[in-house]
């Protein structure tokens, strides 16, 4: 029987964490795991191996095959999409050959509609809603540091049980998988936290500790979350004030000096995931007759920061 195969497309914070868990914990070679990367990430892994650091370990690992994005010719049984949201489209388009009608696609972006977006591009495979709870960053291309979070993956149930092997395998490799029938609610709950906190931290250039300890910033954060809740409810997704309270509580688990990854991108003058974290919240709200003055204010401030940085570098 043909070996099952898994490809991770995008070896950054998320893709690297999942790849490391599989490579470090797999118990046999019954399933093939390939990395699809590009540029410096590809070159560094090729020449030095893949370095994964966590509070428990520092290991150099090797995927079964390291492949250059755009040059892959075989379809996979499971494809984990782990690029940032703004790179998804081009990554999928240049790697169409990795998908066929037997592939399951797991998109892990901080988006509420990643599965719909990917589905329209890949056409044949089944794409399920998914999200991951994790803090893991690129130190250098091909070198990933896991800073916290269990790496728990929440996945919307596929149409059949033919992919159960994949979920069992990931679980056995130390990636906790939770299959749920109400995936949109989970995705929106996560988006409520990430989008609002990302927007606020990027607009004001503040750490998570500064947001926690500054009553004005904390109130602004709550207003932003309320704008997400009204958008979710407008789409019949049942998140409410109790989720806002849970998000406030969740912030207390983060180190005071932690910054969101969106803020780190803005600091470098990059737009990062602004389109999916901020701009689309505004456009979707307005399209549905909702007002979102706090998101609009964050967007304005973020744009000003970006313009200021672009000016400073000219
Ligand atoms: N990091 C985290 O802890 C968490 C992140 N998320 C979400 O997960 C998603 C991924 O985030 P994260 O892992 O941090 O992002 P990173 O930027 O760390 O990693 C993305 C990787 O994808 C690569 N990539 C982009 N386009 C291609 C392509 N065409 N072919 C091959 N590789 C490509 C990038 O390479 P290159 O450098 O060359 O662009 C980069 O290595 C985001 O939506 C994020 O919001 C969710 C939960 C936690
Ligand atoms: C959880 C959090 C906020 C950690 O930095 C994150 O995932 C992000 O920045 O996108």
UniProtKB/TrEMBL annotation:
<dbReference type="GO" id="GO:0008677">
    <property type="term" value="F:2-dehydropantoate 2-reductase activity"/>
</dbReference>
<comment type="pathway">
    <text>Cofactor biosynthesis; (R)-pantothenate biosynthesis; (R)-pantoate from 3-methyl-2-oxobutanoate: step 2/2.</text>
</comment>
<dbReference type="InterPro" id="IPR013332">
    <property type="entry name" value="KPR_N"/>
</dbReference>
<feature type="domain" description="Ketopantoate reductase C-terminal">
    <location>
        <begin position="187"/>
        <end position="296"/>
    </location>
</feature>
<dbReference type="InterPro" id="IPR008927">
    <property type="entry name" value="6-PGluconate_DH-like_C_sf"/>
</dbReference>
<dbReference type="InterPro" id="IPR051402">
    <property type="entry name" value="KPR-Related"/>
</dbReference>
<dbReference type="GO" id="GO:0005737">
    <property type="term" value="C:cytoplasm"/>
</dbReference>
<dbReference type="InterPro" id="IPR013328">
    <property type="entry name" value="6PGD_dom2"/>
</dbReference>
<dbReference type="Pfam" id="PF02558">
    <property type="entry name" value="ApbA"/>
</dbReference>
<feature type="domain" description="Ketopantoate reductase N-terminal">
    <location>
        <begin position="6"/>
        <end position="157"/>
    </location>
</feature>
<dbReference type="Pfam" id="PF08546">
    <property type="entry name" value="ApbA_C"/>
</dbReference>
<protein>
    <recommendedName>
        <fullName>2-dehydropantoate 2-reductase</fullName>
        <ecNumber>1.1.1.169</ecNumber>
    </recommendedName>
</protein>
<dbReference type="InterPro" id="IPR013752">
    <property type="entry name" value="KPA_reductase"/>
</dbReference>
């Amino acid at each position: 029987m043909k070996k099952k195969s898994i490809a991770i497309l995008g070896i950054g914070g998320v893709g690297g964490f999942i790849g490391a868990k599989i490579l470090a914990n797999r118990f046999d070679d019954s399933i093939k795991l390939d990395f699809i990367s590009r540029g410096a990430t590809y070159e560094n892994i090729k020449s030095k191996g893949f370095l994964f650091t966590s509070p428990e370990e520092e290991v150099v690992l090797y995927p079964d095959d390291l492949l250059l994005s755009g040059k892959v010719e075989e379809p996979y049984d499971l494809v984990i999409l782990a690029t940032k949201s703004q790179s998804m489209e081009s990554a999928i388009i240049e790697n169409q050959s990795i998908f066929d009608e037997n592939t399951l696609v797991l998109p892990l972006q901080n988006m509420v509609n990643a599965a719909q977006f990917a589905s329209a591009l890949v056409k044949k495979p089944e794409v399920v809603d998914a999200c991951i709870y994790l803090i893991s960053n690129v130190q250098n291309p091909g070198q990933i540091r896991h800073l916290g979070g269990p790496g728990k993956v929440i996945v919307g149930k596929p149409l059949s049980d033919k992919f159960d092997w994949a979920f069992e395998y990931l679980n056995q490799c130390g990636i906790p998988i939770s299959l749920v029938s109400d995936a949109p609610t989970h995705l929106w709950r996560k988006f409520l936290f990430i989008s609002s906190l990302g927007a606020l931290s990027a607009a004001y250039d503040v750490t998570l500790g500064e947001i926690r300890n500054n009553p004005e910033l904390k109130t602004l954060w709550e207003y932003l979350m309320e704008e997400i809740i009204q958008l979710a409810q407008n789409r019949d997704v049942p998140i409410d004030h109790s989720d806002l309270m849970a998000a406030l509580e969740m912030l207390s688990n983060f180190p005071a000096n932690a910054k969101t990854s969106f803020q780190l991108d803005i600091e470098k003058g990059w737009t990062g995931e602004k389109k999916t974290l901020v701009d689309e919240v505004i456009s979707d709200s307005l399209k549905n007759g909702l007002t979102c003055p706090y998101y609009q204010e964050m967007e304005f401030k973020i744009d000003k920061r970006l313009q200021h940085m672009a000016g400073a570098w000219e």
